[in-house]
Predict the structure of histidine kinase.
Amino acid sequence: MNKTIFKILILFIASAVVISLILLSINFLAFAITASDTSNLNQKSPVTVLGEVAKHLNKTDSGFAFGEEYSLSENLWVILIDEAGNVIWQEHKPADIPEHYTINDVASMTKWFLNDYPVYVRTLDDGLLVLGYPKNTVGKYQMEYSMEWFSSLPTRLIAVLLFNAVLATVLALCFGLILYRRLKELVTGIRTLKQEEPTNLKEKGIFKELAKSVNETSVTIGRKNALLKQQDDARANWIAGISHDVRTPLSIIMGYSEELSGSLKDENKQKKAEIIMSQSLKIKTLVEDLNLISSLEYDMQPAKKKQIKICSLLREAVSEILNEAMDEKVNIELDLTFEKAAVVGDERLLKRAVFNLIHNAVCHNKSPCTIQIIQKKEESMCVISIRDNGAGVDPKVLEQIGTIPKSAHGLGLPMAYKIVQVHGGVFNAYNDGGFCVEMKLPLAQ
């Protein structure tokens, strides 16, 4: 299970349980507070009204009466019953309320109703005070509990809370699993999208819009990739065609120039023939680089792998550089400390990388210039260091060292970087009193 989705699921379940317990506690409290709402009938509870009536009821020579400062609400009525069961005083008494009561009538009304009127009672020294509310305004239900019920109430409350917590956890888990499946589909879709592969998520549920966006993005990426592939194929075909068209006339030019340079007796003409030969070689190298960079740009693996002696490869690359017309003030120093070093790879590609780096150091630095080539072993890696004491390289070039330039100029450094990469190596380039390149290649077992 994906850790991120698992964390979301756990957080979802924990939140649901906590919210359920909080709501349950609030509901218990609210029910306890609002269990009796008879105070809303007259803005006062029956007990309060009875207390006010008893307080303001005065006994006079002619009977009973309220004080001048108090009056009973119009929708309420009250009577006073003496010990004989007779009504000796009343206020707002309905016509269907009797004037005399037996002990059974009194017992009944104290719990329930009097002629369907909800009533409440209070004893006074002069008799029983009965307060009545309008019909159909109050419901009364008798509920009785043993003392054992009250003593075990805390335990049962805890049991109810635990039951609700378990129920909330189960329900949250059920909904969470549904959420997990949808999230897992989205995560899988996004990962597939990251790899630029076709994605087709189900567009339903709470993540409908998000799934739709992922699907639309997948379609857009597919279209762009198809267009890019078409453009890349066209470019590769163009490079291959140009290379083929250039090789034939170039071979003829190189053959004739070589023949002329060996047969001409005029020193000036012989020198011109050699220049033609030299420039033709540069054109040939450029064409080869274009073909090579076209394949390396897509991280194509070396085609002809074999075990290569690094020291021999370095010596051959230096010999080719020295055989070219090179400024006499440019000095190349070789320091090969691990003669047995061998790597597995494409000899042509690795030699091209080394040749390009040395050739760049020769061509882009003013003489006098010293180029140091150091080869050594570090654990299971063969390290090749090429450094010069020239002007260095523009930092912007180093920042984009892995990007193939759009022009033929500046191919050498990115090409070497790509070649080392496809051989599973590490390529570091930096300025330090000149330009320095360090290549690390895995040693052959």
Observations:
- The radius of gyration is 51 Å.
